[in-house]
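HUMAN: Quick job: go over this next protein and say how the chain folds.
***
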Amino acid sequence: MAKVQALSAKKMTAAEGYSMCLTIRFSLLLTVALLVSACGAGKAVQTAGESFDRAGCLSREFKGQTPCPAPE
């Protein structure tokens, strides 16, 4: 128990504080970058899905099947 108290009572040097600050900034930047890229990936999936829907309707028309219902 005394060892834990001794470790927690140790004062941080300026270099250690600066290093910790950089680590936190990097972590925040990485988190924001991942969130932004996830939004872009969602839009890409939506666009791809719409393209597959259009291609599916076109193939039904070429095969002579009933056409897709008109979008509202």
Q: What stands out?
A: The helical segments are 2-8, 14-63. The CA atoms of residues 47 and 58 lie 17 Å apart. Residues 37-65 form one domain. The chain has a mean pLDDT of 77.
